What does this fold into?
Amino acid sequence: MTDILQAPAMRGFIRMCMDGWDRGWHERNGGNLTYRMTDEDVVQCRTFFKAPGPWVMMDVQAENLAGEYFITTGSGKYFRNVEPDPVHSLGIVEINENGNAWRIVWGLEDGGKPTSEFPSHFMNHSVRKTATNGANRVIYHCHATNIIALTYILPLTDRDFSRALWQSATECPVVFPEGVGVCPWMVPGGADIAKATSEKMKTYQAAIWAQHGLFASGPDFDTTFGLAHTIEKSAEIYWKVLATGQPIRQTITDEVLRAIAKDFNVVLNEAFLN
Ligand code: 2HA
Ligand code: ZN
It folds into this structure.
């Protein structure tokens, strides 16, 4: 390998950024993506690392992420520029042995920093790593249009959003049988939104930030992008139905939801069924 950008982790990361850009979920510097690298990824990329930058303390801590390496989008950087200008748009950071500081080992050239949502990503990586016995590696935040629009009209409860999404596309109960979490509007970028989101992510693969966007997790880029895409598509369908102004004549009933779960061998969150 002659270029770090040929590493499968980097290729997958960049492709996902451009997919999100193409969907229209990353206006200006909106959204962010982080990936917890495997040992093999680190071996492939290490020869391209630079002399590490200084350690930068965080106001969140996760012992189970000590010594990990993350690929991250940069604070204030544009998804639109990730493919044409990766060395400024992206970086790799190493986490210290206490799990409370990072330092840059590749990219984020000319004074760049990890995404402003790094505390939220970090806490959520920690929670999802535990919840999935180490399988989870990707955390993705996007400004998905239709899901944001729904946060103006639906009650901001896990139950209301989970039911609306399950009922709006047949694949939803199979893709996220536990439902989705909903956080009220909160100031972006800080420890509070990080903690509130990570509480939700103990149960769910995805959380919605009211009037802001979507937070999705998964073991790899395909699954995580697919989850965000599925949630947003379902929100779009629900939104189109509401926009007709017609009464809803039929929907996916709870009986059908239970039947889908049985056939596809998934456990639906019973708390959200009638
Ligand atoms: O620009 O999306 O949540 C980054 C964001 C903040
Ligand atoms: Zn955002």
Notes: The longest helix spans residues 221-243. Strands lie at 32-36, 56-57, 69-73, 90-95, 101-107, 138-142, 181-183, 206-209, 213-218. Residues 30-31, 141, 143, 188, 212-213 surround zinc ion (ligand 2) (CB under 6 Å). DSSP finds ten helices and nine strands in the chain.
